[in-house]
């Protein structure tokens, strides 16, 4: 059978009804790390709109892992209880839901974007940030380098967060290992100047991500998919910048450590050249990783039309289409795409009068 945007995809024991994914997007609406009505509407409306997989915004595994005091969390049982009804609602609409676990590392402790997104010192309600090395990542402050025992504790935080994700009912887990956050701070030599077992050569710089993936795989059900988002390139001409070749190597090792899908984004420690940003500009990263390793991939980056999304799947450039801003503009993009492409997306009964072409 022809593979297209509305073909199902099997990930371990999980079946996605189509290849459309809601990308994690920070909402900065979670005092004390708690989700609430905003998240129910934000995530639930995209599930009603027909995506196969909803991935939550980056959710911290410790208070110090946040970027701002308003990021979501999974470091206590109150947060598990707050997530559970939202997860259940998303699933009731026919979508699956994954939590994206993260730690901001040296990019943490910032004010709400509406207040300027500046660094918050501990005296201002922030916290001491920790990274691979004492390298400034925001030109506002310099984090402290993590000690060996702190690294081991951090891996434990991720494993505990994964266990809470299982308790909250999530279908899958994604590790945020891109965009200049903690894992990226370790695997990119732009931020990692360590000389111990977590720094220096490639194998050492990827160690934290691999050990965390292994720790999570050990505490979640065997049938639960584990995803990773990478920054495939650093957008830097520096000699030791992370490259697509590095990402291919890393994806192959992640696959051996029980990772099922790699979503290939880019940047975070440096910005892309302005003349390089355009429709589908990050798709070649997913295509290369998939072609060279065989791992399932998600494509991102200014994908805005049903035709673009469908072509990525039918040509085999990627296995999933991960949409961010386009789903903010149009929560019902999947239902509209089914109409445009004459493919069998299914609108909920309450909305079928508006999407009659999407009925089976």
TrEMBL record:
Single annotated GO MF: NADPH dehydrogenase activity
Organism: Hymenobacter fodinae
Entry keyword annotation includes Transport: no
Necessary cofactors: FMN
Keywords, comma-separated and alphabetical: Flavoprotein, FMN, NADP, Oxidoreductase
Record CDD domains: OYE_YqiM_FMN
Domain NADH:flavin oxidoreductase/NADH oxidase N-terminal residue range list: 5-341
Protein name in the entry: NADH:flavin oxidoreductase/NADH oxidase
Entries under SUPFAM superfamilies matching the protein: FMN-linked oxidoreductases
InterPro entries: Aldolase_TIM, OxRdtase_FMN_N, YqjM-like
